[in-house]
């Protein structure tokens, strides 16, 4: 009687044991999948010399091919491996070296030579150098450039910095926002850069006097006479033409990456990625020097782009050829303060209205 009454309990325990064993059997694949190394070992054979031989000869099976409609592209391919090697072994170190070296040079230059102050006292009389439209274009493009540079650096190096510090969840959200900002602001930056390049083209055409400016170091070193310069000096022209060449290459390659639905192949996308990264990293490094010279490195430069006006002394010292053209248009500081809105004659910088 006791055995008969215990039988249902034993039956239930047997079923529970079987369920437990089945559960353990199901858990093992899940545990294997939670381990990336174990998952790779079970899902994809090791990529060895034989696998690369098959890839290059086209002998790969269906597990190695793109599953999209009408695609015969190999998921594992020599071109992708070449891109990975170039990106990891050359592009990423190049970016760190270029940007790090520029920061070191700027720091050493500032510690050794300090800020380039004006050689003569300010007169208090002002010359219009940048219109409201030109300043708006400059600051908009500059802001977009900084945002794109920071988001681009995060895409390239962020996983080595923020992922160990904050963990996967924070890093994943950060990267998602970074990609959205970079992808959507890039085309806007490209359109505005083309506008600003077209507007400032005539001021930045090379002239024979530019070489003398470079030979004298742009006047940043020493107390001698500052080299001759028109509206744009040699250094500003170099920055302009870097934007007009490397900058446009970065924009074009970025559009190839941003809009992959126009028939470009993966090989094209890979090379566009390399061009985009190298150009952007190089421009970021040079931009640090441009920012330093226009702010901390040279007295009076920042206020010109901030207010539109520069002091006579600054104009005479840094852009003497331009100053000679416009010196009769200088106005007192109180007149500048009284101008709440640009008048009809302020549509272009001084010196160009009289041409």
How would you describe what is shown here?
- This protein is mainly alpha-helical and 355 residues long.
- It has 2 domains: 2-64; 78-131 and 200-346, Up-down Bundle (Fumarate Reductase Cytochrome B subunit).
- 68% of the residues lie in helices and 3% in strands.
- It contains 13 helices and 3 strands, in the order H-H-H-H-E-H-H-H-H-H-H-E-H-H-E-H.
- The chain has helices at 2-34, 36-43, 49-57, 78-113, 132-166, 168-199, 209-215, 234-258, 266-294, 301-307, 312-318, 320-326, 333-338, and strands at residues 125-128, 309-311, 331-332.
- The chain has a 3-stranded antiparallel beta sheet.
- The longest helix has 36 residues, at 78-113.
- The radius of gyration is 31 Å and the shape is elongated.
- The termini are far apart.
Notable features of this structure?
disordered N terminus; 355 residues; mainly alpha; 2 domains; Fumarate Reductase Cytochrome B subunit; single chain
